[in-house]
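Tip: read the tokens left to right.
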């Protein structure tokens, strides 16, 4: 009888453990801290600005979790970049005044959101100020760390967060990809180098949280699913005589003595190359004989033409390397984060799902389409406020499932009908997906020399990647130069 009683007690205790396991995993959001890069900082439309930061995914998540006093390094309106504004569907863009100033530099504690545009994993670990060398060549370091002499990692650890998030530390991939210069060991670091910084981050924060990591980390999305890489395709049409496909022209893999030849299937055309295509770069003269630069190849690597850095094509070998290295980075993230106790959110799968299936809200369909989709902002890389809200909502569901919490879902109505929860920003579109020719026109209007330079800096792209090959200087770069505005560089 005593043995049976003991057996029943053990069984009852086990049942309690099983049933209580979700409650035991309940998260404490009292002190929520996030680190990361531009996507985690609320960067939007090529700039850092209050209306974007207000709807950064960490800020939205903090509101859903009931976090009081979630502090960010707010850049007052009209922001720094400068922000680009779509003024008509012609298209025409204009600059917002580039006069935004930090609003809470005197906060006596570190910010809760310590994400810095342009940051790498090595930046989180090593940088205390804008030293002028990679990975610390970033003027925003001083805006966020404010001369404390401490790194982002040290400041995050000093806060002893009850819940900690590592956002998308993926500029190690995104920088080489957006510049179109993917060279292993030169512009693209090894998985070992990536893992070294990441291990330091998770181990340090695990210790700061009492020996067990409490929070979430995000994998790196496949950068090639971004509109920056999908909006302009290499396919121009079909030869009416032969029925053969016509592809844009590039300089690589051509027969001897042939400066330009069709790119192979699987080549990606970065969005800013639309500005070159508008003048005929990459376009066979047989297709558009009146364009002044027809039969001139699009560049293979990041190059400088008439003083302006432009990206290069991504050939299939570069695409394969990016995808393989991204898989390796994510394997390191999973292994290191899970060993430290953190839950791994598959941001890569989320982006693929949005690209394939979109999102439907009360009859409103959002997609990854450039300009018309509503999920991404004008630069084709960073989400719109609506996109950030979708990410935050997915994270709320993930945390509820993994920590046994019951955080409320994000109310999407403010984003769907207003564009965001505060004035300014990217509204949802009411027109259909633009054609490739229209996208080329938009890219030419949007990616002005000012915006391109700022864009490279925000992506953490080194000067070497931006100008690996010098252009021949022939002809004019067909990017309209908007009226110059005084620019406070995001990364000087």
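Filled-in amino acids:
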């Amino acid at each position: 009888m005593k043995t049976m009683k003991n057996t029943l007690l053990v069984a009852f205790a086990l049942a309690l453990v099983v049933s209580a396991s979700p409650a035991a995993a309940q998260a404490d959001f009292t002190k929520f801290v996030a680190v990361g890069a531009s996507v985690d900082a609320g960067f939007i439309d090529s700039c850092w600005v209050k209306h974007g930061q207000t709807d950064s995914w960490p800020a939205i998540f903090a509101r859903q979790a009931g976090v009081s006093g979630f502090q960010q390094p707010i850049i007052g309106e009209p922001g720094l970049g400068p922000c680009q504004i779509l003024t008509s569907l012609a298209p025409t863009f204009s600059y917002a005044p580039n006069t935004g100033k930090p609003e809470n530099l005197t906060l006596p504690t570190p910010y809760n959101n310590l994400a810095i545009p342009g940051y790498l994993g090595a930046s989180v670990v090593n940088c205390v100020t804008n030293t002028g060398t990679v990975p610390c060549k970033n003027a925003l370091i001083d805006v966020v760390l404010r001369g404390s002499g401490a790194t982002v990692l040290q400041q995050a650890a000093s806060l002893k967060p009850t819940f900690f998030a590592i956002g998308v530390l993926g500029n190690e991939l995104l920088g080489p990809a957006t510049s179109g210069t993917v060279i292993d060991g030169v512009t693209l670091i090894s998985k070992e180098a990536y893992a070294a910084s990441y291990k330091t981050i998770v181990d340090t924060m695990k210790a700061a949280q009492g020996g067990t990591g409490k929070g979430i980390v995000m994998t790196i999305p496949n950068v090639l699913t971004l509109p920056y890489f999908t909006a302009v395709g290499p396919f121009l049409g079909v030869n009416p005589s032969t029925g053969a496909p016509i592809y844009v022209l590039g300089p690589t893999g051509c027969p001897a003595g042939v400066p330009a030849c069709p790119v192979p299937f699987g080549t990606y055309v970065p969005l800013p190359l639309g500005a070159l295509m508008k003048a005929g770069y990459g376009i066979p003269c047989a297709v558009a004989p009146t364009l002044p630069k027809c039969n001139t190849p699009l560049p293979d690597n990041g190059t400088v033409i008439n003083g302006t850095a432009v990206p290069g094509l991504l050939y299939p070998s570069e695409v394969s390397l990016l995808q393989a290295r991204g898989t390796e980075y994510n394997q390191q993230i999973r292994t290191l984060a899970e060993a430290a106790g953190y839950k791994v959110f598959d941001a890569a799968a989320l982006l693929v799902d949005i690209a394939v299936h979109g999102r439907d809200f009360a009859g409103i369909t959002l997609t990854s389409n450039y300009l018309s989709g509503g999920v991404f902002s004008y630069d084709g890389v960073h989400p719109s406020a609506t996109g950030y809200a979708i990410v935050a909502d997915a994270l709320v569901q993930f945390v509820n499932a993994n920590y046994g919490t019951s955080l409320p879902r994000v109310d999407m109505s403010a984003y769907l009908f207003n564009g965001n929860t505060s004035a300014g920003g990217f509204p949802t579109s009411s027109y259909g997906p633009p054609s490739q020719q229209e996208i080329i026109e938009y890219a030419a209007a949007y990616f002005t020399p000012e915006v391109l330079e700022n864009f490279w800096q925000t992506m953490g792209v080194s000067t070497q990647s931006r100008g690996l090959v010098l252009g021949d200087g022939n002809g004019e770069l067909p990017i309209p130069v908007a009226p110059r505005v005084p620019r406070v560089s995001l990364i000087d």
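The radius of gyration is 24 Å. Residues 27-228+317-418 form a domain with the Rossmann fold fold (CATH 3.40.50.1110).
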